[in-house]
Amino acid sequence: MKKILKNAYVLMSADADIKKMDILIDDDIIVELSDQMYIEDKEKIEDKYEIYDFTNKLIIPGFINTHTHLAMSLFRGIGDDLTLQNWLFNEMFPREDLLNDDLTYYGSLVSILEMLSKGITTVVDMYLFMEGTARAVKDTGIRAFLTRGLGYDNDDGWKRRIDETIYLFENYHNKYNIKVGFGPHAPYTCPMNKLEEISELAKKYNTFTTIHLYESVNEREMYSIQEIEKTGLFKNNVIAAHCVHVDEEDIKIIAKNEVTVAHNPSSNLKLGNGIAPILKMLEHEVNITLGTDGAASNNTLNLWEEMRLASLLQKSNGPEKFKTEEALRMVWENGGYALNEKIGRIEEEYKADLAIIDLNNFEFYPIDLNRLKSHLVYSPINKVYATMINGEWVYYDGEYPKLKESDYSGKFHKLYFDLEKKFKKSKGE
Ligand code: NI
Protein backbone atom coordinates (compact mmCIF):
# COMPACT_ATOMS: atom_id res chain seq x y z
CA MET A 1 0.00 0.00 0.00
CA LYS A 2 1.10 3.56 -0.67
CA LYS A 3 2.19 5.61 2.32
CA ILE A 4 1.73 9.31 3.01
CA LEU A 5 3.98 10.90 5.62
CA LYS A 6 2.20 14.11 6.61
CA ASN A 7 2.91 17.36 8.46
CA ALA A 8 6.63 16.74 9.00
CA TYR A 9 9.57 19.06 8.55
CA VAL A 10 11.72 17.67 5.75
CA LEU A 11 15.39 18.18 4.94
CA MET A 12 15.69 16.85 1.38
CA SER A 13 19.48 17.06 1.09
CA ALA A 14 22.55 18.60 2.72
CA ASP A 15 22.21 21.91 0.89
CA ALA A 16 18.42 22.27 1.00
CA ASP A 17 16.40 24.36 3.46
CA ILE A 18 14.13 22.59 5.92
CA LYS A 19 10.47 22.86 4.89
CA LYS A 20 7.14 21.49 5.98
CA MET A 21 6.22 18.85 3.38
CA ASP A 22 4.18 15.72 2.77
CA ILE A 23 5.87 12.68 1.20
CA LEU A 24 4.06 10.10 -0.93
CA ILE A 25 5.73 6.70 -1.15
CA ASP A 26 4.73 3.97 -3.58
CA ASP A 27 6.35 0.60 -2.87
CA ASP A 28 10.07 1.38 -2.43
CA ILE A 29 10.17 4.78 -4.15
CA ILE A 30 9.43 8.38 -3.20
CA VAL A 31 6.92 9.42 -5.86
CA GLU A 32 5.76 12.83 -4.72
CA LEU A 33 6.85 15.64 -2.45
CA SER A 34 4.46 18.46 -1.83
CA ASP A 35 4.07 21.30 0.63
CA GLN A 36 0.35 20.51 0.76
CA MET A 37 -0.62 17.13 -0.62
CA TYR A 38 -4.11 17.10 -2.09
CA ILE A 39 -6.44 15.24 0.25
CA GLU A 40 -9.65 13.82 -1.11
CA ASP A 41 -12.47 12.44 0.98
CA LYS A 42 -10.81 11.07 4.16
CA GLU A 43 -12.64 7.71 4.08
CA LYS A 44 -11.56 7.02 0.54
CA ILE A 45 -7.99 7.93 1.22
CA GLU A 46 -7.64 5.55 4.15
CA ASP A 47 -8.52 2.60 1.89
CA LYS A 48 -5.77 3.48 -0.50
CA TYR A 49 -3.03 4.83 1.72
CA GLU A 50 -1.39 4.30 5.07
CA ILE A 51 -1.23 7.77 6.55
CA TYR A 52 1.27 8.87 9.19
CA ASP A 53 0.94 12.17 11.00
CA PHE A 54 4.48 13.31 11.72
CA THR A 55 3.71 16.66 13.33
CA ASN A 56 6.76 17.87 15.24
CA LYS A 57 9.02 15.32 13.55
CA LEU A 58 11.91 15.93 11.15
CA ILE A 59 12.42 13.61 8.15
CA ILE A 60 15.93 13.28 6.75
CA PRO A 61 17.57 10.89 4.25
CA GLY A 62 18.80 7.70 5.93
CA PHE A 63 22.52 7.73 6.78
CA ILE A 64 25.04 5.76 4.70
CA ASN A 65 27.82 4.02 6.65
CA THR A 66 30.52 3.26 4.06
CA HIS A 67 32.89 1.27 6.24
CA THR A 68 32.26 -1.30 8.93
CA HIS A 69 32.73 -4.93 9.94
CA LEU A 70 29.26 -5.85 11.18
CA ALA A 71 30.03 -9.05 13.06
CA MET A 72 32.69 -7.31 15.16
CA SER A 73 30.13 -6.25 17.76
CA LEU A 74 31.26 -9.60 19.27
CA PHE A 75 34.66 -7.97 19.89
CA ARG A 76 33.45 -4.63 21.26
CA GLY A 77 35.65 -3.55 24.17
CA ILE A 78 38.66 -5.76 23.43
CA GLY A 79 42.16 -4.23 23.47
CA ASP A 80 41.25 -0.62 24.22
CA ASP A 81 44.83 0.61 24.48
CA LEU A 82 46.66 -1.29 21.75
CA THR A 83 48.22 -0.18 18.45
CA LEU A 84 46.56 -1.30 15.21
CA GLN A 85 49.14 -4.04 14.52
CA ASN A 86 49.06 -5.38 18.10
CA TRP A 87 45.27 -5.17 18.30
CA LEU A 88 44.81 -6.85 14.88
CA PHE A 89 47.40 -9.64 15.08
CA ASN A 90 47.14 -10.55 18.80
CA GLU A 91 43.49 -9.89 19.64
CA MET A 92 41.38 -9.89 16.45
CA PHE A 93 42.89 -12.44 14.04
CA PRO A 94 43.14 -15.31 16.63
CA ARG A 95 39.50 -14.75 17.63
CA GLU A 96 38.46 -14.56 13.99
CA ASP A 97 39.94 -18.04 13.52
CA LEU A 98 37.18 -19.27 15.87
CA LEU A 99 34.24 -17.69 14.03
CA ASN A 100 31.46 -19.44 12.11
CA ASP A 101 28.25 -18.42 10.32
CA ASP A 102 26.21 -18.55 13.52
CA LEU A 103 28.52 -16.13 15.31
CA THR A 104 28.65 -13.71 12.37
CA TYR A 105 24.85 -13.88 12.11
CA TYR A 106 24.29 -12.74 15.71
CA GLY A 107 27.24 -10.31 15.70
CA SER A 108 25.92 -8.70 12.50
CA LEU A 109 22.33 -8.73 13.73
CA VAL A 110 23.23 -6.78 16.87
CA SER A 111 25.24 -4.23 14.83
CA ILE A 112 22.44 -3.77 12.30
CA LEU A 113 19.81 -3.29 15.01
CA GLU A 114 22.01 -0.65 16.64
CA MET A 115 22.41 1.13 13.30
CA LEU A 116 18.72 1.02 12.41
CA SER A 117 17.90 2.64 15.76
CA LYS A 118 20.20 5.51 14.78
CA GLY A 119 18.77 6.06 11.29
CA ILE A 120 21.51 4.29 9.31
CA THR A 121 19.87 2.72 6.25
CA THR A 122 22.85 1.59 4.16
CA VAL A 123 26.05 -0.16 5.14
CA VAL A 124 29.25 -1.28 3.38
CA ASP A 125 30.75 -4.32 5.06
CA MET A 126 33.93 -6.38 4.77
CA TYR A 127 34.37 -9.51 6.85
CA LEU A 128 34.37 -13.31 6.91
CA PHE A 129 31.67 -15.96 7.24
CA MET A 130 29.61 -13.55 5.19
CA GLU A 131 26.67 -15.89 4.74
CA GLY A 132 25.85 -15.30 8.42
CA THR A 133 25.97 -11.55 7.79
CA ALA A 134 23.87 -11.86 4.62
CA ARG A 135 21.21 -13.72 6.64
CA ALA A 136 21.17 -10.94 9.25
CA VAL A 137 20.75 -8.37 6.46
CA LYS A 138 17.86 -10.36 5.04
CA ASP A 139 16.16 -10.61 8.47
CA THR A 140 16.46 -6.89 9.27
CA GLY A 141 15.97 -5.20 5.88
CA ILE A 142 19.04 -2.94 5.91
CA ARG A 143 20.53 -2.01 2.52
CA ALA A 144 23.92 -3.72 2.44
CA PHE A 145 27.03 -3.84 0.26
CA LEU A 146 28.84 -6.98 1.36
CA THR A 147 32.36 -8.23 0.71
CA ARG A 148 34.27 -11.25 1.90
CA GLY A 149 37.58 -9.87 3.24
CA LEU A 150 40.47 -11.16 1.10
CA GLY A 151 44.05 -11.70 2.17
CA TYR A 152 46.84 -13.89 0.79
CA ASP A 153 48.54 -16.56 2.89
CA ASN A 154 48.98 -19.37 0.36
CA ASP A 155 47.41 -20.33 -2.98
CA ASP A 156 44.81 -22.66 -1.44
CA GLY A 157 43.67 -20.13 1.16
CA TRP A 158 43.44 -17.40 -1.48
CA LYS A 159 41.42 -19.59 -3.85
CA ARG A 160 39.02 -20.57 -1.06
CA ARG A 161 38.34 -16.90 -0.23
CA ILE A 162 37.80 -15.97 -3.87
CA ASP A 163 35.42 -18.95 -4.22
CA GLU A 164 33.52 -17.75 -1.13
CA THR A 165 33.17 -14.30 -2.72
CA ILE A 166 31.81 -15.80 -5.95
CA TYR A 167 29.42 -18.01 -3.94
CA LEU A 168 28.17 -14.95 -2.05
CA PHE A 169 27.77 -13.06 -5.33
CA GLU A 170 25.84 -15.85 -7.01
CA ASN A 171 23.51 -16.41 -4.06
CA TYR A 172 22.95 -12.92 -2.64
CA HIS A 173 23.82 -10.22 -5.21
CA ASN A 174 20.72 -8.18 -6.09
CA LYS A 175 18.63 -10.20 -3.62
CA TYR A 176 17.33 -9.19 -0.16
CA ASN A 177 18.58 -5.60 -0.59
CA ILE A 178 22.17 -6.87 -0.91
CA LYS A 179 24.92 -6.09 -3.40
CA VAL A 180 28.09 -8.18 -3.28
CA GLY A 181 31.51 -6.81 -4.20
CA PHE A 182 35.20 -7.56 -3.69
CA GLY A 183 36.98 -6.80 -0.41
CA PRO A 184 40.77 -7.05 -0.60
CA HIS A 185 41.60 -6.39 3.07
CA ALA A 186 44.62 -4.12 2.50
CA PRO A 187 47.70 -3.87 0.26
CA TYR A 188 49.82 -5.29 3.14
CA THR A 189 47.72 -8.48 3.24
CA CYS A 190 47.10 -8.68 -0.57
CA PRO A 191 50.22 -8.54 -2.78
CA MET A 192 50.07 -6.47 -5.97
CA ASN A 193 49.55 -9.44 -8.31
CA LYS A 194 46.50 -10.41 -6.21
CA LEU A 195 45.13 -6.87 -6.44
CA GLU A 196 45.53 -7.22 -10.20
CA GLU A 197 43.48 -10.41 -10.08
CA ILE A 198 40.77 -8.68 -8.05
CA SER A 199 40.60 -5.73 -10.42
CA GLU A 200 39.92 -8.20 -13.28
CA LEU A 201 37.27 -10.02 -11.25
CA ALA A 202 35.52 -6.78 -10.21
CA LYS A 203 35.39 -5.81 -13.89
CA LYS A 204 34.06 -9.23 -14.89
CA TYR A 205 31.32 -9.19 -12.25
CA ASN A 206 30.70 -5.45 -12.77
CA THR A 207 30.65 -4.69 -9.06
CA PHE A 208 32.29 -2.48 -6.43
CA THR A 209 35.52 -3.00 -4.47
CA THR A 210 36.43 -1.82 -0.98
CA ILE A 211 39.89 -1.87 0.63
CA HIS A 212 41.70 -0.48 3.70
CA LEU A 213 44.30 2.03 2.52
CA TYR A 214 47.06 3.84 4.45
CA GLU A 215 45.34 3.40 7.79
CA SER A 216 48.57 3.37 9.84
CA VAL A 217 51.81 5.28 9.22
CA ASN A 218 54.02 2.17 8.88
CA GLU A 219 52.04 1.16 5.77
CA ARG A 220 53.96 3.87 3.89
CA GLU A 221 57.02 1.59 4.04
CA MET A 222 55.10 -1.42 2.71
CA TYR A 223 53.54 -0.24 -0.57
CA SER A 224 52.79 2.83 -2.66
CA ILE A 225 49.59 4.12 -4.21
CA GLN A 226 51.44 4.38 -7.54
CA GLU A 227 51.96 0.60 -7.46
CA ILE A 228 48.29 0.00 -6.69
CA GLU A 229 47.25 2.27 -9.56
CA LYS A 230 49.32 0.09 -11.90
CA THR A 231 47.33 -3.02 -10.88
CA GLY A 232 44.23 -1.48 -12.52
CA LEU A 233 42.25 -1.73 -9.25
CA PHE A 234 41.27 1.96 -9.32
CA LYS A 235 39.65 1.58 -12.74
CA ASN A 236 36.76 -0.08 -10.88
CA ASN A 237 34.33 1.55 -8.46
CA VAL A 238 36.48 1.63 -5.30
CA ILE A 239 35.82 2.76 -1.73
CA ALA A 240 39.11 3.15 0.15
CA ALA A 241 38.75 3.18 3.92
CA HIS A 242 40.88 5.52 6.08
CA CYS A 243 43.56 7.18 3.83
CA VAL A 244 45.00 8.74 7.00
CA HIS A 245 48.60 8.77 5.76
CA VAL A 246 48.24 9.96 2.16
CA ASP A 247 50.46 12.74 0.80
CA GLU A 248 49.52 15.22 -1.91
CA GLU A 249 50.75 12.96 -4.75
CA ASP A 250 48.63 10.10 -3.40
CA ILE A 251 45.61 12.40 -3.15
CA LYS A 252 46.06 13.41 -6.80
CA ILE A 253 45.97 9.73 -7.82
CA ILE A 254 42.89 9.09 -5.66
CA ALA A 255 41.13 12.14 -7.15
CA LYS A 256 42.10 11.34 -10.76
CA ASN A 257 40.73 7.79 -10.43
CA GLU A 258 37.57 8.95 -8.64
CA VAL A 259 38.22 6.62 -5.70
CA THR A 260 35.83 7.35 -2.83
CA VAL A 261 37.39 7.73 0.62
CA ALA A 262 35.57 6.37 3.67
CA HIS A 263 36.68 8.53 6.59
CA ASN A 264 36.48 6.82 10.02
CA PRO A 265 37.60 9.48 12.51
CA SER A 266 36.74 7.65 15.78
CA SER A 267 38.46 4.41 14.80
CA ASN A 268 41.51 6.30 13.48
CA LEU A 269 41.84 8.14 16.79
CA LYS A 270 41.13 5.13 19.00
CA LEU A 271 43.81 3.01 17.31
CA GLY A 272 46.18 5.96 17.45
CA ASN A 273 46.50 6.23 13.68
CA GLY A 274 45.91 9.96 13.42
CA ILE A 275 43.63 12.28 11.48
CA ALA A 276 43.03 11.96 7.74
CA PRO A 277 43.82 15.14 5.72
CA ILE A 278 40.20 15.69 4.77
CA LEU A 279 40.54 19.39 3.82
CA LYS A 280 43.41 18.59 1.45
CA MET A 281 41.33 15.82 -0.14
CA LEU A 282 38.32 18.14 -0.50
CA GLU A 283 40.58 20.69 -2.24
CA HIS A 284 41.25 17.99 -4.82
CA GLU A 285 37.52 17.20 -5.02
CA VAL A 286 37.84 13.69 -3.61
CA ASN A 287 34.45 12.14 -2.79
CA ILE A 288 34.52 11.71 1.01
CA THR A 289 32.03 9.57 2.93
CA LEU A 290 31.88 8.52 6.59
CA GLY A 291 32.22 5.15 8.27
CA THR A 292 32.07 3.88 11.82
CA ASP A 293 34.51 1.00 11.21
CA GLY A 294 33.74 -2.08 13.33
CA ALA A 295 32.46 -1.96 16.90
CA ALA A 296 35.81 -3.40 18.01
CA SER A 297 37.63 -0.14 17.18
CA ASN A 298 35.03 2.58 17.78
CA ASN A 299 33.12 1.23 19.91
CA THR A 300 29.69 2.53 18.85
CA LEU A 301 28.16 2.38 15.38
CA ASN A 302 26.89 5.91 15.64
CA LEU A 303 27.32 7.90 12.43
CA TRP A 304 25.98 10.97 14.28
CA GLU A 305 29.13 10.91 16.41
CA GLU A 306 31.31 10.48 13.31
CA MET A 307 29.73 13.56 11.68
CA ARG A 308 30.36 15.62 14.78
CA LEU A 309 33.91 14.39 15.25
CA ALA A 310 34.83 14.75 11.55
CA SER A 311 33.63 18.36 11.67
CA LEU A 312 35.37 19.26 14.92
CA LEU A 313 38.67 17.73 13.80
CA GLN A 314 38.70 19.73 10.57
CA LYS A 315 37.70 22.91 12.39
CA SER A 316 40.99 22.68 14.26
CA ASN A 317 42.37 24.19 11.02
CA GLY A 318 40.01 27.17 11.37
CA PRO A 319 36.25 27.08 12.07
CA GLU A 320 35.33 28.44 8.64
CA LYS A 321 37.20 25.64 6.83
CA PHE A 322 34.58 22.95 7.31
CA LYS A 323 30.88 23.77 6.86
CA THR A 324 27.91 22.05 8.48
CA GLU A 325 26.62 20.99 5.02
CA GLU A 326 29.92 19.27 4.22
CA ALA A 327 29.39 16.79 7.08
CA LEU A 328 25.82 16.10 5.94
CA ARG A 329 26.93 15.49 2.34
CA MET A 330 29.39 12.87 3.66
CA VAL A 331 26.63 10.76 5.22
CA TRP A 332 24.13 11.32 2.40
CA GLU A 333 24.77 12.30 -1.22
CA ASN A 334 28.46 11.36 -1.29
CA GLY A 335 27.54 7.84 -0.15
CA GLY A 336 24.82 7.54 -2.79
CA TYR A 337 27.31 8.71 -5.43
CA ALA A 338 29.96 6.24 -4.25
CA LEU A 339 27.53 3.32 -4.38
CA ASN A 340 25.84 4.43 -7.58
CA GLU A 341 22.37 4.28 -6.00
CA LYS A 342 19.48 6.71 -5.75
CA ILE A 343 19.92 7.10 -2.00
CA GLY A 344 21.10 9.90 0.28
CA ARG A 345 18.49 12.45 -0.82
CA ILE A 346 14.76 12.84 -0.40
CA GLU A 347 13.68 13.40 -3.96
CA GLU A 348 11.11 12.06 -6.37
CA GLU A 349 12.30 8.75 -7.92
CA TYR A 350 14.77 8.21 -5.09
CA LYS A 351 14.57 5.15 -2.82
CA ALA A 352 12.38 5.65 0.24
CA ASP A 353 15.28 5.31 2.74
CA LEU A 354 14.43 7.74 5.54
CA ALA A 355 15.04 8.54 9.19
CA ILE A 356 12.35 10.23 11.29
CA ILE A 357 13.49 12.32 14.24
CA ASP A 358 11.26 13.29 17.13
CA LEU A 359 11.95 16.99 17.67
CA ASN A 360 10.98 16.62 21.30
CA ASN A 361 14.55 15.66 22.14
CA PHE A 362 16.38 18.22 24.26
CA GLU A 363 19.32 17.92 21.86
CA PHE A 364 17.08 19.50 19.21
CA TYR A 365 15.86 22.46 21.26
CA PRO A 366 15.23 25.17 20.26
CA ILE A 367 13.05 23.74 17.51
CA ASP A 368 13.89 26.48 15.06
CA LEU A 369 14.10 25.63 11.35
CA ASN A 370 17.21 27.76 11.00
CA ARG A 371 19.06 25.75 13.61
CA LEU A 372 18.02 22.13 12.94
CA LYS A 373 20.89 21.46 10.52
CA SER A 374 23.34 22.56 13.16
CA HIS A 375 21.64 20.27 15.69
CA LEU A 376 21.97 17.35 13.25
CA VAL A 377 25.75 17.73 13.02
CA TYR A 378 26.72 19.06 16.45
CA SER A 379 24.09 17.78 18.87
CA PRO A 380 23.85 14.04 18.21
CA ILE A 381 20.91 12.03 19.51
CA ASN A 382 21.18 8.40 20.49
CA LYS A 383 18.05 7.07 18.78
CA VAL A 384 15.73 8.21 16.01
CA TYR A 385 11.96 7.80 16.15
CA ALA A 386 11.72 5.59 13.06
CA THR A 387 13.75 4.29 10.14
CA MET A 388 12.39 3.33 6.71
CA ILE A 389 14.24 1.37 4.02
CA ASN A 390 12.77 0.70 0.57
CA GLY A 391 9.45 2.11 1.80
CA GLU A 392 9.24 -0.36 4.72
CA TRP A 393 9.53 0.43 8.42
CA VAL A 394 12.58 -1.39 9.81
CA TYR A 395 12.58 0.47 13.14
CA TYR A 396 9.57 2.22 14.62
CA ASP A 397 9.24 3.73 18.09
CA GLY A 398 11.65 1.27 19.71
CA GLU A 399 10.47 -1.83 17.79
CA TYR A 400 11.86 -3.75 14.80
CA PRO A 401 8.76 -4.67 12.77
CA LYS A 402 10.52 -7.02 10.32
CA LEU A 403 12.51 -9.00 12.90
CA LYS A 404 11.11 -12.43 13.83
CA GLU A 405 13.93 -13.55 16.15
CA SER A 406 13.02 -12.59 19.74
CA ASP A 407 15.92 -14.04 21.76
CA TYR A 408 18.79 -12.48 19.83
CA SER A 409 20.33 -11.07 23.01
CA GLY A 410 20.42 -14.46 24.78
CA LYS A 411 21.88 -16.21 21.73
CA PHE A 412 24.41 -13.45 21.07
CA HIS A 413 25.72 -13.62 24.65
CA LYS A 414 25.87 -17.40 24.78
CA LEU A 415 27.88 -17.54 21.55
CA TYR A 416 30.09 -14.69 22.74
CA PHE A 417 30.99 -16.33 26.09
CA ASP A 418 31.67 -19.69 24.39
CA LEU A 419 33.99 -17.93 21.94
CA GLU A 420 35.94 -16.19 24.71
CA LYS A 421 36.32 -19.50 26.55
CA LYS A 422 37.77 -21.10 23.40
CA PHE A 423 40.06 -18.14 22.82
CA LYS A 424 41.48 -18.34 26.37
CA LYS A 425 41.97 -22.09 26.00
CA SER A 426 43.81 -21.61 22.68
CA LYS A 427 46.24 -19.30 24.52
CA GLY A 428 46.72 -21.91 27.22
CA GLU A 429 45.04 -19.83 29.95
NI1 NI B 1 38.06 -1.47 8.86
Describe the structure.
α3 (101-117) packs across α15, α11 (303-315) packs antiparallel against α12 (324-331) and α12 packs across α14. The chain is of the alpha/beta class and 429 residues long. It has 15 helices and 16 strands. The chain is globular. The strands form three sheets. Strands 1, 2, 3, 4, 5, 14, 15 and 16 form an eight-stranded mixed sheet that branches. A four-stranded parallel sheet has the order 6-7-8-9. The mean pLDDT is 95. The protein folds into two domains: 2-61 and 344-396, Urease, subunit C, domain 1 (Roll); 63-339, TIM Barrel (Alpha-Beta Barrel), CATH 3.20.20.140. The structure holds nickel (II) ion (NI). Nickel (II) ion (NI) binds at residues 67, 69, 212, 241, 293-294. The site of nickel (II) ion has 6 residues, from loops.
